[in-house]
Amino acid sequence: MAEAEALASYNNDTGIRRRSPRSKAINTKKLHRIRTIFWSNESESSESESDGEGSKINENSSVLDENDSKEEDHNSTSTSLTITKQLNFGGRLNLSRIHTFPHIYTIDNFLTSSELHYFDSIIKQTNCDKKFQKSYIDQGSNGHDQSYDDVNRTSQFLQFNSHHNSKIAAIESRAAELLGVCVECIEPVQLVKYEAGQYFNVHHDLGVLYEDGSVELPVRPPRRVCTIFVYLNDVPMECGGCTRFPLLFHDSNNSNGEEDEGKSKGLCVQPVRGRALLWCNVDEDGRPEVRTVHSGEAIVNHTSKTKAGDLGVVKYGINIWVCERMVG
């Protein structure tokens, strides 16, 4: 099996440390929506037995702030979850599965147009003020040790406070609603920037990645159970910048994931403005899902023709990390 061979090969030549971790599992039994999205057997049976209709779970949802309530079709308060390769939340969020076991999804138009314009203004002001900071990596068993690593991560970032304003609060609430957790389980939103040549090498969002391919589960909660990464601008394929999962290959019937010829690069997702990429960092038993290691590929020093002329390509996105317990 191609992915098993990739994992065996990967274990021999990648990672950060050599020591094998000792970890205790996260209790996933109460993470009902996460279990449904990522591990439910209904997901597979509905695809084969119900001709795409699937089973539905109806819940009440309020995922937008009042400033966005007048936007087109972005103000649905009735949530319907369809367990197929297409998960639909009342017409507002459509989850398209691009990989099965582990399940990985793309969500187009995760952000509203006003939210995208908000980030445009934040990016412009932050660049003008030169307030983007050098990115760091988390290390250690407690999950809170931070250090700079010029070899593995060269991007930049801007950190928001939790509930920073109505826009950020709406995004946090939307992520919480999507995965069925309280909003206090959402880490503060992080805006990231990749200029030409900048990248984030293969890593795992849950904890330290070791050279044997294992991942350390931080001892203390809260821990990052799921990741939602949202692209804030388009990046042409020739300019790099994709999110790459080296151990996975895209489902052949879905075009959102780009597969390199010969499957040498695994699953690659190219940045599309407003698109979110969703995956789970743990398996059903609450242990690290090692197959979701990934990288932010380098931006190629290239120019892209826009209405404003030839501009150097820069990639922008936001990290939304969802934890099993309240943050802070």
Overview in brief:
The chain has helices spanning 2-13, 32-38, 42-49, 113-129, 166-179; strands at 56-60, 78-82, 86-89, 93-99, 104-107, 133-134, 137-139, 145-147, 156-159, 190-194, 200-203, 224-231, 243-245, 258-259, 267-269, 276-280, 294-296, 303-306, 309-312, 315-323.
Give the rounded overall mean pLDDT: 79
CA-based shape = globular
Give me the secondary-structure category.
Answer: alpha+beta
Distance between the termini: 42 Å
Question: How many helices in DSSP terms?
Answer: 5
Unreliable runs: 12-18, 43-84, 306-310
Rg, alpha carbons:
19 Å
Helix content: 10-25%
Largest sheet: 9 strands, antiparallel
The strand line-up of the biggest sheet is 3-4-5-16-12-20-10-9-6
Number of strands: 20
Give an overview of the whole structure.
With 328 residues, the chain is of the alpha+beta class. It is 18% helix and 27% strand. It is built from 5 helices and 20 strands. Strands 3-4-5-16-12-20-10-9-6 form a 9-stranded antiparallel β-sheet, covered by helices on one side. The radius of gyration is 19 Å and the shape is globular.
What descriptors fit this protein?
5-stranded antiparallel β-sheet, single chain, 328 residues, alpha+beta, 9-stranded antiparallel β-sheet, 5 helices
